Amino acid sequence: MRPLSIVCIALGLLLLMTSCATQNLFLKDADKSVDTSMEVINARYGHVIKMDDKITVSIWNHDDLSVGSLFGIYNSNEVYGKWVLVNKDGEVSLPKIGIIKLGGLTKKQAEDTLTTIYAKTILNPVVVVKVINREVTVLGEVKNPGNYVLDKENNTVLELVGRAGGFDFYANKKLIQVVRGYGPGAKTFMLDFTSLENYKQNNLNLQSGDIISIPTRQGKFLDKKAPGLIPFASLLTGIVVLLKFLSQ
What we know:
CATH architecture of the largest domain: Roll
CATH topology of the largest domain: Outer membrane lipoprotein wza fold like
Helix content: 25-40%
Order of helices and strands: HHEEEEHEEEHEEHEH
Shape: elongated
Strand order of the largest sheet: 7-6-10-8-9
Strand content: 15-25%
Largest sheet: 5 strands, mixed
């Protein structure tokens, strides 16, 4: 077999080894992205209490009526504190009040509703409602991918990326996606963080259940495999030189 033929075969094998691309779960749906003004989307955001939300209710100076009080001795943390679960009908059971429907209300609306009820027996009640299990998922090229609790009302993409340890070296900052919802009604927002000038209009306010996907730049697989390919390339070169010498 001629040295040239051997080289072609070897290069073909090398190309086959390096042709495997990193799969990005959400990039296949990039053409379904929603082209909507971020200012409009962010302005109308407000979490709506729904089934399976874990909520705490704090009434100032009334620990007996509170559930996971921010003001008293009972912690409002999801793991160690006290909270109530919103059932499938959007209802919760609270001390002295009993069953009340808060599902479908924003945090502010729920606080106003409870304040009106407690005002019948308490002078100027101070009521704080908190949803403690609002989470988003950060996937892909960040240092610490995983689920993160939204501890504020407004949380942006860059804030959550920061909490996840920041972008990894191979992060494709031009094709970041935020997937919101499931099924036919799901929305996909395509974000570009490669330019400082337009990062604000791409810095979407997140909602509970959002998935942030940071895809991988091309070349990661080759870079990862390069140390292992160097000995193979050296061996190939040696074989070609030897065959060329013997064929003379």
